[in-house]
Structures are given as structure tokens and as C-alpha cells.
Fold each of these.
Amino acid sequence: MNDTKGVKDAFVVKIIPPKGYSVYRLRFTRRHVVGVAAVLVVAMLAAVGVHTWQLKVAENDVRAL
């Protein structure tokens, strides 16, 4: 594949194992990076929300004793 369109908008990670002759190339576009970042932010916010809810439930349980 010799496509030069969008080369500047891509990130390339090359993995070269210490033994062997294979080079693995992973290519990510900006859209991939932004998508993964957005999913991570949503997951972190959800985890913080669940943790906060659990703390409030535990506090209410302690107050009820």
C-alpha cells in the first residue's frame, strides 16, 4: 500500500522484536486517537461517579447505625 494521502495525519508505531526478522507496524489516524481519548474520559468519569455513589451509600449505611 503506497498511499501518501493523510500521512501527516497519522501516527505510526513500529515494533521490532529483539529476535526475529518481522517488523510490526501499527498506524493510527487522529480520529482513532481522539476516539480512544474520548472513550477513556467517559470511562474515567463513569468510574468516579460510581465510586462517589458507593461512598454516599456507605455513609448513609453508617449514619443509619
Amino acid sequence: ARFPEASELFQFILSRFDRLRNLIYKPSFTLTYNDFYWTNFAVRKDKQAAMMFDYNLLGKGYRFSDFRNVQSLAETAYQAFLDEYERLYVKKHGHTRHEEEHLEVKIDEVAAPLFSLIVASRQEQFPQWAEYAKAEALDGTLADKAKRLLL
């Protein structure tokens, strides 16, 4: 109701909701952190270690959501996260995460903006952090991604 200009997109999603839901639950889930921001970390003075201390937005989801969220950090912090994650992943699984990430990326390109729109639409004033999702819904970008995922 908040974005009638995108009603065709929402009807498309709703008519294929079961397929979208099945895809969302297809990848293995892990503990995810949904508030990557520099104020939520304590970093050692030599920058060789960091620790999160704000855990109120921990959740369960697929790995790629962490890679999307961590992009808000400075480039050096982002790269450190990726390097360490990759090292631990290879140690555990014997191959890189990129082999399994393709589907997660496609799902995330649709699910993340939809989730942002839902959360943002519940607020009296539409928040700045969700403007990207609104723009994608209105300009057809999100519809194109949804069609590639769901058809």
C-alpha cells in the first residue's frame, strides 16, 4: 500500500512466494551479524584483532548476508573480515566459499531489499538506509532480479 507504483512487483513476488521461501531456506544457515558498524567493534591498537560487543542484531541466516552487511566497514576492515572468513571456511570445508555462494547472492539480491522495504514501511518516516530498496522497487531493478530468481 505504501508503494502502489510497485504493485506489479509485489504481485509477482506474492504469486511465487512459496518458491521464494523454498529458495531462501535452501542454503545452509549460520549465525549472522546484522549490524556491522565501526561503533560496535573493539579493535586492538595494533589492528591485529577485533571483537564485536553489540550483539542485539544477531540472527540466523545464510552466509552471504554477512558479506553484504560487512561492506559498511572501512575497506581494510572489510578485507580483514573476508580474509579471515575465507581462511576459516577453507580450513573447515577444504574449498572456497565461492563455489556455494552463487545461489546465496541471487537470493540476497531479492530478499534483502524486500526485507528492508517491509521493516522500513512499518516506520512512520521512511528511513534513509532503505532508500536503495525503494529505488530498486520503483525503477524495475528488483523486478528484474526477482524474475531471474523465480522464473
